[in-house]
Design brief:
Helix content: 25-40%
Number of strands: 9
Strand order of the largest sheet: 1-4-3-2-5-6
Order of helices and strands: EHEHEHEHHHEHEHHEEE
Largest sheet: 6 strands, parallel
Number of helices: 9
Radius of gyration: 20 Å
Distance between the termini: 43 Å
Strand content: 15-25%
Bound molecules: adenosine monophosphate
Shape: globular
Length: 290
């Protein structure tokens, strides 16, 4: 069974009637298989899963795609309905705030910022983005009070940011990581893929291809023995004149801390961000020892 709620008072009422622990899957909607995998995974662990659908204005910069971002609530509800196989035991509650004021009432002033992550990768490229993400996820955690919350490895930096906030602010929520869902060409599924033209979508596959190539070089090696060749190849890839794809960044980081790798490191995540026309896509690949 699916229930749709749009206000905090409805949410409070529902929470009062739930006896057992439940899960949260935060999303911005326009659900694709990547999102649905998160919800399915949550339904394996809990009978009740709250899926939030909210395009959070605070995490978009002034020249970014907040207005263009796809909003498809009815389709999303249909897709979620398809996940309920046993409506006697399993329930999805969609929390879709009707307007930004529901989440940010009363001239909201307080935000949450990770000052380290704001200086690297997407934090550096998109000033205020991570602050917006932390602030909305904190508010969702406090309002909904889930036992566990499910996040995709597709947004690896976001996952690290939330894990860090959860720890630093002692929120005590289990953060569950879920693998990246990709299409048949390796392109990571993203609501923003909808904004791409056919040509842009074709060229977007270069993002994953580059990450894969770098991951092959890194596999089974430490940073000391791989850094020269990796850095040379990254410079070459970024130097190629593509028709459409323009690199924002392509970087290797230590896997856990996201700091620049040290010579002895053997666990890495390769991060890429690129513009396809007006649309900015991100992807990453982990390379782990063994
Ligand atoms: P979004 O709606 O883009 O804010 O994403 C909501 C959640 O879905 C986040 O935890 C994302 O990491 C996750 N997600 C988005 N795309 C994918 C994907 N292709 N594979 C796995 N998880 C994803």
């Amino acid at each position: 069974m699916i229930k749709i709620i749009q206000t905090i008072s409805e949410l409070d009422k529902i929470k009062r009637n739930i006896k057992n622990d439940y899960a949260l899957v935060p999303t911005m909607g326009n659900l694709h298989q990547g999102h649905l995998n998160l919800v399915e995974r949550a339904l394996e662990d809990f009978d009740i899963v709250i899926v939030s659908i909210f395009v959070n204005p605070l995490q978009f910069g002034p020249n970014e795609d907040f207005n263009r971002y796809p909003r498809t609530l009815n389709e999303d509800i249909n897709a979620l309905n398809g996940l309920i196989k046993d409506s006697d035991t399993k329930q999805i509650i969609v929390f879709a705030p009707a307007s930004p004021e529901v989440m940010y009432p009363d001239g909201h002033q307080t935000t949450i910022r990770n000052t380290v992550m704001d200086e690297i990768l997407c934090g550096k490229s998109r000033p205020g983005h991570f602050e917006g993400v932390c602030t909305i996820v904190y508010r969702l955690f406090k309002l909904i009070e889930p036992k566990s919350a499910y996040f995709g490895l597709k947004d690896y930096q976001q996952l690290k940011l939330i894990q860090r906030m959860n720890k630093d602010l002692m929120l005590g929520i289990n953060i569950i990581e879920c693998p990246t869902a990709r299409d048949e060409n390796g392109l990571a599924l993203s609501s923003r893929n909808r904004l791409l033209s056919v040509e842009e979508k074709q060229e977007a596959t270069l993002l994953n291809k580059a990450l894969l190539e770098i991951s092959q070089i890194l596999k089974g090696r430490d940073w000391k023995s791989s850094k020269d060749i990796v850095q040379r190849r990254i410079a070459e890839i970024k130097g190629i004149k593509n028709n459409i794809l323009k690199w924002d960044y392509l970087e290797v980081r230590e896997n856990k801390t996201l700091s620049l790798p040290k010579d002895e490191d053997q666990n890495f995540t390769i991060f890429g961000a690129a513009f396809l026309g007006k649309t900015r896509l991100i992807d990453n690949i982990e390379v782990k020892e063994g």
